[in-house]
Amino acid sequence: MDARTVLIDHLPALPEVLLLIGACALMIVDLYVRSERRNASFDLAQIVLLLCAASTLFVQWVDGTTRLYIFNGLFVSDVMSNLLKLASYVSVWATLVYSRQYLVDRGLLRGEFLTLLLFSLLGMMVMISANSFLTLYLGLELMSLCLYAMVALDRDSAVSTEAAMKYFVLGALSSGLLLYGMSMIYGATGTLSISEVAQRVSRIAATTDRSLLVFGLVFMVAGIAFKLGAAPFHMWIPDVYQGAPTAVTLAIGAAPKLAAFAMAVRLLVNGLLDLAQDWQQMLALLALLSMAIGNITAIAQSNIKRMLAYSTIAHMGFMLLGLLSGVVGGNLLSAADAYSTALFYVVVYVLMTLGAFGMLLYLSRKGFECENLDDLRGLNRRSPWFAFVMMVLMFSLAGLPPTAGFYAKLAVLSSAVQAGQLWLAVAAVILSLVGAFYYLRIVKLMYFDEPKEAGPVPGHREMRALLSVNGLILLILGVFPQPLMALCYIAINSL
Amino acid sequence: MLLSLAIWVPVVAGVLLLVLGERYARWIALAGSILGFLVTLPLYWNFDVSSSTMQFVEFARWIERFNVNYHLGVDGISMLFVLLNSFITVLVVIASWSQVDSRVAQYYAAFLVLSGMLNGVFEALDAVLFYVFFEGTLIPMFIIIGMWGGPNRVYASVKFFLYTLMGSLLMLVALLYLYGKSGGSFAILDWHRLPLPLGAQLLLFFGFLFAFAVKVPMWPVHTWLPDAHTEAPTAGSVVLAAILLKLGAYGFVRFSLPIMPDASRQLAWLMIALSVIAVVYIGFVALAQTDMKRLIAYSSISHMGLVTLGFFIFNAYGVEGGLVQMISHGFVSAALFLCVGVLYDRMHSRMIADYGGVVNSMPKFAGLMMLFAMANSGLPATSGFVGEFLVILGAMKTGFWLALLAASTMVLGAAYTLWMYKRVMFGPVANPQVAALKDLNGREVAVLGLLALAVLGMGVYPLPFTEVMHASVNELLRHVALPKI
User: Fold this and answer.
1) Which pTM was predicted?
2) Residue B434 has pLDDT above 80, yes or no
3) Is A406 close to B132, i.e. CB distance below 8 A?
4) Containing domain of residue A152, as a range?
5) Percent of chain B, pLDDT > 90?
6) Cα–Cα distance between A290 and A292 in angstroms, integer?
7) Predicted pLDDT of residue A1
8) Is the dihedral of CA A61, A64, A69, A75 positive or negative?
């Protein structure tokens, strides 16, 4: 085998390789950067992301819809992995742009932030492309460790350090749960490869005792729920979201959800589809609890970051509605339909999260954190356009037409109803009515109340532009959701 | 093309207003609303009254993944509401010309976008499209009440929003259920032909009932309306009463009756009971009001009770009477809210007790309002009479006692409207401010005059309105009479 075939054979891992090289280069380059704004490092990070995006598109173009396994089946590349990776680049890039000024104002824009962000992205990409318990776990830990460190980036802040501590302890616990579940499944099937697990599980499930499999499954689902932030494994979310610097909250709240979704799909759908009857029931419970706890608790919050944290929990519950509706009575016919609605939901959710936290970063400035509901008071007087963008974001989160959030809700509800989960769907809409209240309160504050301070909102040009585009995308997707929906469908069909 | 224009001309005008800002905002709004009205006129001229099918149909693929289409069309039931809505929008723009001085562009933009979306609700033949417009109307109305409303505006706007959202979310589940049952179609007309077992029909009926009953509003889910009406700015109350309330009643004839005919017949007693309670009980409640806007709001609930009553007695008089009553109520309630607005602009009070003897200083106004008060009480030769008479006639076919209860609206309506009129207009001038009131200016005369013409025209010669409906209403009744189980 000459070098050329080795290269071609491992082409699907090109984005990961580039990102690894880029992140290492960034670490070195940053040592020589003196300026406060870190222009060189910042630009390098953006270039790395751009290269990754280009290479992922290239991989997609070369491979089409074929599914490729490399590194002895440890790593898989399919349309879903490419789509999720692209969404992660966009999300990390938006995180960079939104948080730049915020970090500069607080003296936090150090090389560490950029490097950790890129390494956490690498972890997500490994998770997204994992085809083995081992790869998946490595990716998960790489991502999580970077995120723990980022939460503690503002080391003089007691709140941040406390949040980082909580995040680390609970995160380690959940990784342990996941690992324990994996070891059970390994014990039952004798393999770590997810695609082989799938084959053996279908044999075991048909013939012998399944209790060991189900036992492992429970722990695995708990681990997944923890990473997604679904109740009752949601305890870390509010504290970490609130305690972390807003820029880091954005980094935790957006792209990692894509990776967590990929993890759920890889483990449950790719690996344990034959146990769908079992995990669907667990997910149904998680979904119901998440929607209830998230939406009801969010009402009582006066801190926006905390409110958005609870809203995340509720949204993850909604997303699970799509994941749990795939297999109806052992019938796989509508599985791709259902999982693609969940994928659509999670992508739209990440877009909304980016916008919402981006807005908080935009409204914060040196010596002032925009994190209480009152800080949004009268925004319409100060900046009608950004009040409008925020209104679009809030209505999208609430799931009202004509915004992308509506179609996301429509899609997952449709999956649930089609799967015969009528009462779960009714519960979901009633709880989303509860949710509409707190999103509406923000619109009310912006439009109906008098501002606390006068004058327009300052802010950087690139940030204003991206924030506007972010809001407009949600509006445009709210009118023409077909392209993204079709893309999600193709992605899930390639599984 | 015409139907799309009816939706998008006002919406584009609204967006344009937001982009251009305050300069010339009023004129752009006026031009947009008049243009929006003009493009709907050919719908009436070119309408084939002998056909019960959908006309001016437009079809385009929209969201293929869920088989959702941009499918528009109007029949004899929906066409008139598109015209009514576009007409009322023009009046609303003129009427608020000098009422609003803060953030004028946003104000008018909200009304124009709302107008386009309301047209969309009446024209949509695809359930998702319908739902998008149906729920989309909440956002501009929420902003209108909350930003330009009275002292208690925030409470009223949030209550309005959450109340109506609750109903429509349950409808969403019903729509998705039908989507599954029909094998993946959101076409409303396909659903009309879809056979459904009675159990499913009953379940669906309640799903839709919440959405539409809240919008109508029917007793006992009406409590958002008096608050919303009272706190909304005049123009907001006008659109709310004239058009938004019609969405619920329209939903019954477009969804509930044809899709769930067996459930509708089975539950007709319930609907009739709720309607009669609205007519009689809310009529008495209206009598007790001291705030003019609240009084008209309760009168709206009572009149809409007659509409739902007409729909669920399943004969041509009832259904047609209900539809005529909807249009007439659109004119009359709009006019009454505008009249209160005229007084409020001058005195900044809505309380009946603050007035008395207004006729002395505002004779022109008193004359016009007299006409609308009479129309509200259902006096023959006004539009109010036609619809009420038809519904009572229809009720008579069902039973004498039902007709008697329905007819009580004539008595109660006259009582609360004319009593209010008397207390406001006649009697001694107790308040020195009243003595100093200026009579209507040219713009107000124009707006109220147009409505007066409409009210009288429809009352004297209702044929142009009813002939449009005949074919569609007969087809609807024929369809409802057939079991679908």
Assistant:
1) 0.91
2) no
3) yes
4) 3-493
5) 20
6) 5
7) 60
8) positive
